[in-house]
Amino acid sequence: MMGLLWCAVMAMAVALAFAHPKQPSTYHPDDVTYPGSVTVFTVPAAFPTSVFSSYYVKPGPTNQPQPVLYDPVLNITFPFNLTDPKHVPDSNDDPVIFPQPIANISDATGEAIASAAVSEVSRIFKSNNTGGSNTCSKCIAALAVGQMVARLAPTHFPSGMVSLCHSLKFSTYSSCELTYGPNGSGASWAQILAKADVAGLDGKYICSYLHKNVCEYPTVTSVKAVFPKPKPKKPAEPRRSGKKVKVLHLSDLHLDPRYSVGSEANCTSYMCCRYSEPPSNGTVPEISVSAPLFGYYKCDSPFYLALAALQSIGPLTGTSAKNPPAFSLYTGDLIAHDDENQASRAYVEATEVAIWEAFKAYIGGPIYTALGNHDTTPADYEAPHAIDNNSTLGSQFSWNYAHVSSLWAHYNWLPSSVAQQASTHYAAYAVSPPHHPNLKIITLNSDLYYQHNPFALLNATNPDYSGMFSFLVTELQAAEDAGQRVWIVAHIPTGWDGGSALPNSADYFYQIVERYSPHVIANIFFGHSHEDQATIYYRNNGTAQTKEEALVTGWVGPSLTPLQNLNSGYRMYEVDTGSWEVMEAFTFYSDVGSYTNLSSSVDGEGDGGQGEGPVFKLEYSTRATYGPAVNWPSDAPLNATFWHGVTEAMERNRTLAELFTQYQGKSSAKSKKCETEECTKAKICYMRSGSTALGKQCKQGYGSVQ
In the prediction, which pLDDT does 6 show? Predict the structure, then answer.
């Protein structure tokens, strides 16, 4: 009788929680123990100045700090003008790398060739007789003309691209001049056109990139992955130890050292919360939302928010520098969303130092990082070594791989041998955490399969052109042979709504996951979307999406940055040290909407005052929130079978999908809701889609809550 009564009480609690999806679930089963000393932590308003040794500009109630940053690897101190909020540069002195011309021609001849090419491309698009009347055929023909310029007169290629960008309306995040010009990414585009198979699949991808309405985006052309050994018919099942450790998952901080307190936070053009010069006529521009000290929805993270989040981790997770998690994961994107001309190698390097110095102050133990698409310059761009056998073009981003890997070794997060591996493998590496030799963590540079990396469009018929997947297979096979479990850590998710990973690459990755799951791969971790998401990988490329076929979960970590219209958040896992399965996951967040009230309450000199800063709190426990709807045993892991059960529960109860969507935006008041049957079906479809091809089959338009 007592058992029936208990079940009835629990069912009522779950029903009440789901009946009001706008509020975090309040269901707390007795077997859930929360990890920290508190579930709500109010960060002190005062900036913790001891994190950095000195400052060009000290923190205060009306300004962000400007710390003096010393780089222990490069042995330099970065100058103040690199991040001065009032003097953001519009150019840099970074090397501009063009492909070698195939002929020795004069500058005048090169200019004439480029001019003639622009005229010919314009004629092609105006003509109806180019071997095919559709616009895709015209674009392919135009690429052949552009390739001639890139090969004969590469230094004149950018000016031609800018001209065509304006006349043909090419896609651009910022402007034609920045995306394709000589002071932007024009040199990179010259490399890409010079090396591309413009008449083949490369050409179709490039045309689709340049203009969404020119060529239909290519569908997947599956390439069969080759493995050193066949999958064991009866692999040994991983055994749980019964001992759990804590693992922290941070992602997408996007630190903005140029954040300007009091500037326009609700701007209409990128980026907000940046200083703008007063009009020359002396009038004061009207500001609709004054940028708060701790951040805003349309802005990247200021120093105040970054340090506030770090201060909250210890009390909320029960960890500290002296009592650290077993290790931490950072799934990419350290750098702010600056335009191409505002970023530089030095700006990237300085941000890396600033963030990791702050991490070191608050998070003990090793931190394993996968680079994101913004962790380079230009953002999104990473060249495969094979573009020229790792010569000038193939090694052009090695400055960053060498820098980050050396920093990781300096902070004792990686052994020197692993850091050396990272420096030569696009900053990707494989490592076993201290005291846990039965686990191997494999990080990837996912920019090499990112849809918005133009270099990734080269040799599109070969999804492993970069060699990244060969590296992954080699490490997975070694782990299988050694009886190790594996966590894969990357930035770009391979599935969801299909908007991030290249189709062939995502398909290839899915084959690798299927080959080595579930007996080797225990979990996969991503970032990038800035949202709290989960994706399930199944056998047979997801053709049968059932709990019996579910293999492994892709956990997408919530972002620390509020951009765009999100709250700030992070996650902590409790993990069994035998099977390395996630047994519990706690997600924490801070309401960014409350920050506008904090700035005015902060007073004091120099450090931001002694008042109250942001409140970080436990948002939800994954087990407590979804477990009752799945009837999940208290001692069972939160694995792919669990998450498939969650999607089945969503099919039965739409309010669960509403709750999932609320958490997707970290309970932001500005996030989109999911209140229709169509949205619910789409959300379930995304969660079951571990590849681009699967995600594209879902109803589009519901993937993001931003």
Answer: 37
Phi, psi of 77 (to 5 degrees): -110, 125
Q: What is the DSSP letter of 319?
A: -
Q: 373: closest CA among 455, 467, 301, 258?
A: 455
Please provide residue 463's backbone torsions phi and psi, each rounded to the nearest 5 degrees. Answer: -65, -10
Among 703, 692, 233, which residue's Cα sits nearest to residue 508? 692
SS3 content of the chain, % helix, strand, coil (to 5): 35, 15, 50
Q: What is the DSSP letter of 614?
A: E
CA dihedral 654, 655, 661, 662 (to 10 degrees): 170
What is the C-alpha to C-alpha distance for residues 445 and 331, in angstroms, rounded to an integer? 10
All residue ranges of the chain with pLDDT < 70 are: 1-32, 129-133, 599-610
Tokens representing 609 are: 């005052």
Annotated binding site: 252, 254, 333, 373, 491, 528, 530
Tell me which amino acid residue 652 is.
Answer: R
pTM above 0.90, yes or no: yes
Model pLDDT, residue 10: 38
Structure tokens at 159: 């000016």
* Cβ-based neighbour number of residue 43 at 10 Å: 23
| CA 449 from centroid of its chain's CA atoms | 13
Q: Provide the pairing of β-strand 533-538 with 582-590.
A: unpaired
The annotated binding site for Zn(2+) is made up of: 252, 254, 333, 373, 491, 528, 530
